[in-house]
Design a protein that fits this description.
Number of strands: 0
Helix content: 55-70%
Low-confidence stretches: 146-167
Oligomer: single chain
Strand content: under 5%
Largest sheet: none
GO cellular component, one term: cytosol
GO molecular function: catalytic activity; DNA binding
Shape: flat
InterPro entries: EcoEI_R_C_dom, Helicase_Restrict-Modif_Enz
Structural class: mainly alpha
Distance between the termini: 62 Å
Radius of gyration: 25 Å
Protein name: Type III restriction protein res subunit
Organism: Candidatus Protofrankia californiensis
Mean pLDDT: 82
Length: 325
């Protein structure tokens, strides 16, 4: 605050007093009214460029730190929240800022990182990730911040019951798929080959028989992802070579510009990681980092229609033909 400002001048003594860090070590109840008056005075302070999402993340980490000290309940719920955020960011590693933190993001999704977690470890996570939260794609922000207000005030489960990480169905299935990549059905999912009802039925029986999940877990996954095949594809991703092959016909007989190639490679990178891309995502980060106005800057309407057809075809191979609409 500028003490020479005519609005600040009447409170100059208090402003100067509370500009000293020592005065904030212990706030007596009797001075709250004075501080409220000061809070309304004009200031040269500029708002956080990382946005509201970063401040919410700050508060989430603070509450995790308090939970570590035993002064705050709900550690498991908040840990899962951070892991959801990390998972969402891992889908954005085509953005250099996010890619630079990929190793940390991967570690956050594991059990091991959270064993004996310390306050400095959590503070490091806050500092390294707070500026990235705004880069989470719009389609996943609702998932990441569902009932996030619960973290800001009174705790309310919002109708969701989080299970301990060791019981997390999605993580168990992801681990199974990674360790069984040579299985025919898993190969089909990764190599963009048509999955069948028989393939999915067999996988479902394996999941149930191996205790990886319950019928309810599977049905919930089907409902959230519009089918078991799409759920599994989102976990396996696509083999990058298979993702690139899907666009062979699009590139045949033409020479793409550097910007067009970059844009296309971004699509392929996301397909390799997440297995699916909706054409609407081409108007969201990370694509808007390259062209804020959308793909129309680099491609004709006909080209975009062709790209959409390719993405639809990739999606269709994770849906049995008998279930396709």
């Amino acid at each position: 605050m500028n003490p020479e400002n005519f609005l600040v001048r009447p409170y100059r003594e208090q402003v100067e007093a509370y500009s000293l860090p020592d005065r904030w070590q212990k706030i007596a109840p009797g001075v709250y009214a004075d501080l409220e008056k000061l809070a309304g005075l004009p200031s040269a302070y500029s708002d956080d460029p990382a946005g509201e999402e970063a401040r919410r993340f700050d508060l989430l980490i603070l509450r995790l730190q308090l939970a570590c000290l035993g002064a705050e309940p709900g550690f498991t719920r908040m840990r899962v929240r951070v892991q959801e955020i990390a998972t969402a960011l891992l889908g954005q590693t085509t953005i250099p800022l996010v890619r630079a933190q990929a190793e940390l993001l991967e570690e956050l999704t594991t059990d091991a990182w959270w064993q004996d977690v310390t306050l400095p470890m959590l503070e490091s996570v806050r500092l390294r990730l707070r500026g990235l939260i705004r880069l989470i794609e719009k389609g996943r922000r609702n998932v990441v911040y569902t009932d996030f207000e619960d973290e800001l005030g009174e705790i309310s489960e919002g109708g969701i019951t989080w299970q301990p990480l060791g019981d997390d169905f999605e993580k168990k299935i992801r681990t199974y798929l990674r360790s069984h990549e040579n299985q025919l059905a898993v190969q089909k999912l990764r190599r963009n080959r048509q999955i069948t009802t028989t393939d999915l039925d067999e996988l479902e029986q394996v999941f149930l028989g191996s205790g990886l999940g319950t019928t309810q877990d599977i049905e919930q996954a089907k409902a959230r992802h519009e089918g078991l095949g799409l759920f599994l594809r989102s976990l396996t991703g696509l083999d990058r070579e298979a993702a690139a092959r899907a666009f062979d016909r699009f590139q045949t007989g033409r020479t793409l510009t550097a910007n067009q190639l970059h844009f296309l490679n971004m699509i392929i990178d996301i397909l390799a990681r997440r297995g699916l891309v909706d054409v609407g995502q081409l108007y969201d980060p990370p694509f808007t980092q390259l062209t804020p106005s959308g793909p129309e800057k680099f491609f004709t309407a006909s080209d975009i229609d062709t790209v959409e057809s390719v993405l639809d075809q990739v999606r269709s191979t994770a849906i049995p033909a008998s279930q396709a609409m």
